[in-house]
Amino acid sequence: MNQDLKDKTLDELEQIVADLGRKKYLAQYIFHFIHVEGATEVSQITPLSKAFRAQLLAQGYRISNLDILDKLTDKDGTIKYVFALDAGRIETVLLHDGQRRTLCVSTQVGCTMDCRFCATAQIPFQRNLTAAEIVDQVNIAQSDGGRISNIVYMGMGEPLANYAAVVKSLRMLNHPKGKNIGIRHITISTCGLAPAIRKLAGEAVCPRLAVSLNAPTDTLRTRLMPINAKYPIAGLLAAVRFYQSRTRQRITFEYVMIKDMNDLAEHAKTLPKLLEGVLCNVNLIEHNPYLGCEFAATSSTRIRQFASILDRAGIETTVRFRMGRGIKAACGQLGAGWLNE
């Protein structure tokens, strides 16, 4: 039985409190102290009576906490936290952009998607993170350096392959009695699990959606991202259109620029036709190498040329140049520092 209070929604905490013969409103203190005050021990939830705190402990209830293995800071201000788990490690990245503080959280230890350009995909999958472990990445980063304004589920692992825990963590982070992070300030990035995208459209909390596209044809995308063989582009885009019809949100398509692979003018000219009818923007991302990677990065000149073609076709396009590369915290590099282990 899961006795971790940090892994419970407010509704679940209310049920626990009621089952212990206490007033349901006491659950709000537990939720607030864990998610706002940063309590790491049951004894720190001081609005609860000593007797009730003792009762919770006697029943085996606890508050889990991630262990920081390392903290690295790049010269561009990017911070990377490395956390030790019972099975492997995860990494979390804090990005500074003016007044915005964006935290890139992980959802799995390792990954099963096998994207060829991503270091994390080379790390054997160990397990899914719990909702508490996802939320605690935010707790620790916020405690260390101030309020987090935006959260992106773009770290290690495929978020929609850990669907239940990810949605649960969304509800916790968005809850007005917790951190109260606006759902429009939370983004889930997926390699394209079409059924899960459709399922997410029916949730009470619907975050922004970012889709890792990376190629305009099935043949090329399957080479780069084997998951495309299961969920080809047509089905993926149908799911994206369904999500947009339900949420009315703009969709972000991420496109990692790989030299002489997916960065040609013909690719840029094909994309607008593919994305026709979708309210979207495209993020062009510099490919970040890792030990043993077969690909090289596209030149900045060619990236700008690619962006220019998309712009002329009416596609809102942003070029995401490297941040955190000096500490292996850039897109596609998480876990690269210990691949040789």
Gist of the model:
With 341 residues, the chain is α/β, with parallel strands linked by helices. The chain contains ten helices and twelve strands.
- Count of beta strands: 12
N- to C-terminal distance: 34 Å
CATH fold node name of the largest domain: TIM Barrel
The general outline is: globular
Polypeptide structure, described:
- By secondary structure, the chain is of the alpha/beta class.
- The protein folds into two domains: 5-58, DNA polymerase, domain 1 (Orthogonal Bundle); 67-338, Aldolase class I (TIM Barrel, Alpha-Beta Barrel).
- 32% of the residues lie in helices and 19% in strands.
- It contains ten helices and twelve strands.
- Strand 10, helix 9 (265-274) and strand 11 form a beta-alpha-beta unit.
- The longest helix is centred in the middle third of the chain and has 15 residues, at 131-145.
- The protein is globular.
- The two termini are 34 Å apart.
